[in-house]
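Continuing the batch. This is chain 6 of the set; chains 1 through 5 are on the previous pages. Same settings as before, nothing changed between runs. Recording input and output for traceability.
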Amino acid sequence: MADQPENLAMESLSLDPQNPSPSSSSSSSSTISYLKPPSPSVQNPSLTRLWRPAAQRNLRNQWSKLASCRKQWVSSSSSGRSHATSLVNAYLSQRYMPSMELGVLSDMPDIRKKASRKLFKQQEICRSKLLSSYKDMVATVTQMVNTSRSMRSFLKGPSNSALVQFSSFSGDQNDAGDGGGIPVFAFWSISSHEKLAEELIQMFILELNLKRLLVLEFLSIRCNVPQVNELHWSDQLYPEEFDHLSTCNLFSEETGEPVPPKLMDLKSDTPAVSCNNQPSQEILQVYLTTWLAEVNIESLRVDEIFAEIGAEMHVSLT
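Output for chain 6:
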């Protein structure tokens, strides 16, 4: 889902010849680490003068995308909880149907059987909608990760060209894309922007993994149905899910399954995740409350990050 390379600036300029080296492949880790030295070409004052406005435009674009992704997450998470609540209500109604007092309806032939059948179909619809919301959340976090990897502005083509262009993808292994570490706007370098983006995105990555656990539990609940299709943590919930989770560093190549869920700043020692297909009403309420709480996302800190970035770039990201 990575964005296509885009030209960030184009200016006419005559510079001394440079020898660009072959491009290096971009990292697949959501933790951004740049160990390459600053590009000698960017230290050229004339090139720096062109690099800064290109970098500013790029950063505004990427942070705007992150702000949009946040809104998409809120929408998908809210829809997911709504579908999960409807699923739980239909499941509990079907579960307790045999013992319900139906009053005058009890004289209607097969009323319990027909009601149970309708509630079963309703659960199937809710499961499909819940899974769709989960897919939307995965897509949103994947986009956030890809966006965070496009914050640098690299020289595109030889620096002695009459047309100097910049791209969000490296074309020179000696070009760090950070303007030699100079401030892009007022105070912060590219690395400072990347660190804040990483802090922000890590919250959503952890919450996404916890949501996956809850989705697995909700999809597993059944009334008097043999466990022939029991779901496991290692199961792929939809086609290409594991590819998307890999982008977010949520899939372990060593174990061949998603990494266990955990809370912020805590290590998970859970060896395996098993699902209960007939949890109690109290447990289901805990699941719904946990979904709503989004314990891995510190909303105040998220607001603070966007406010700080907005002040630095003189734009509104709310």
